[in-house]
Amino acid sequence: MRIRILILFFGLFCSAILCRSQVTKDFGFWNTLNIEHKLNDDLNLSLTQEIRFKENASRLNRFYTQLGLEYKLAKKIKTALSYRFTQRLEDENYFSLRHRLIWDLNFKKNVDKFTFGYRHRLQSEVKQYYSSKLGKLPEWFYRHKLQVKYELNKRIEPYFTTEVQVQLYDAGKMVDNNELNRVRFQLGTDIKLSAKKTFGIYYGFQNEFATANETDIFILGIEYSVKF
């Protein structure tokens, strides 16, 4: 099983290299706050607030609030339904409003000190809701995310994550394209501050292609998570 997962990681890395073209280069700084509340043994309520900066971390790019419910289907399988409200800075120097619905299915497998995780995500989003004639038409994507996490000790868990995004429906062109348009990699670590508080830091790379604005962005991110 571990060999198959490593082969898949290698294949995703190669796909990012092959899809490279003349793109815009940038550096971003992403800040995330996660709050999770356990409603019962199987159901969790979550709230995420994230702020992202672009143009060498000098300019606000977007900020969003996400509210979700996660349900445990089995010991290592969970599903979640979330809503995300985003304000994003456009090229014309105004913030557009975006509404996103997200359905996730998560799997985990523990092997010794390693934890292998897979997340399948289906999302629908409307962009530029009040500023475009097509703003109320949803775009559809699905995303595959793989993560390998290692328990270095009781407090520190380094990890590697890769994710691919496929656009199912392009609202602007009003076509079904089923086209891969983004690959993301992250290398980071989670540090347990206490039983219910975790601090995380990561460095990432995102290659966006097959879009009007092809971009390579290097990302420094920090996360703070609280459970209660």
Span between N and C termini? 35 Å
Helices, by number, come to 1
Which structural category fits the helices and strands?
Answer: mainly beta
CATH domain fold name: Porin
| Quaternary | single chain
CATH architecture: Beta Barrel
CATH C-level class: Mainly Beta
User: How helix-rich are the residues, as a percent range?
Assistant: under 10%
Explained architecture:
- The chain has 228 residues and is mainly beta.
- It has one domain: Beta Barrel (Porin).
- It has one helix spanning 2-18; strands at residues 24-38, 43-54, 59-74, 77-89, 95-111, 114-126, 139-150, 156-170, 175-192, 197-208, 215-227.
- Strands 1-2-3-4-5-6-7-8-9-10-11 form an 11-stranded mixed barrel.
- A hairpin with a 4-residue loop joins β2 and β3 (59-74).
- The chain is globular, with a radius of gyration of 18 Å.
List the helices and strands and how they pair.
Elements: H1 2-18, E1 24-38, E2 43-54, E3 59-74, E4 77-89, E5 95-111, E6 114-126, E7 139-150, E8 156-170, E9 175-192, E10 197-208, E11 215-227
Parallel strand pairs: 1-11
Antiparallel strand pairs: 1-2, 2-3, 3-4, 4-5, 5-6, 6-7, 7-8, 8-9, 9-10, 10-11
Summarize the structure.
The chain is mainly beta. The protein contains 1 helix and 11 strands.
Summary keywords:
228 residues; mainly beta; Porin; 11-stranded mixed β-barrel; globular
